[in-house]
Amino acid sequence: MDKIVAIIPAAGQGKRMGNQVNKQFLCLAGLPILVHTLTVLENHPRVEGMIIVCRDGEREFCRTEIVEKYQLRKVLRIVAGGKERQHSVFNGIKALPADTGLVLIHDGARPFLTAGIIDKAVDQALAMGAAVAAVPVKDTIKEAGPDGIVAGTPDRSRLWQIQTPQVFRYSLILEAHQQAATDGFLGTDDASLVEYIGRKVKLVQGSYENIKITTPEDLLLGEAILKGRLDSDG
What we know:
This protein is α/β, with parallel strands linked by helices.
């Protein structure tokens, strides 16, 4: 069976939060956002290990105040991030165990991941080589030029909002990142690097609750999501 190892990019800053603290370390319902994220992966039976990628100066804090404090036993390494998210993920890929079969990449600030989404993405990655969670776009999208004049309205039925997790065969995502580094190509997500080298990516149904915590408003929404889940659990 393919060994699944997760890479969790957590090297972001709190600029849009109006805060100097890394947003992943901010608390949501009494726990750091990153802990919520890591706990889902820790508890999933198919995920065998995790690589956390954080800012170099935060590695010790992450080790003591996140991994050790909350007894996250599947964390294999904590590595330093790079200038861009893509560079951080590549650092994580280079730190993977040699026997890794599938690489699951999931944003550290996306704490509402579910076991069901993981399973769907993993199953499709096993079949196709690359799979990403996504949800259909709800709003009408307009294309516009620099002058702000509408240039077109894409067919909404063909548009998807991309999330994480994104799951790939190890050899495929390694090749994609290596080629991007060689060419100086900077993609918007890891799937775009796989597309760049001409390979297919399968979309799987994510969740509208699988939000990324980026702004203070997202924190409020996150609290509401957690409350809703607690209420539904009785």
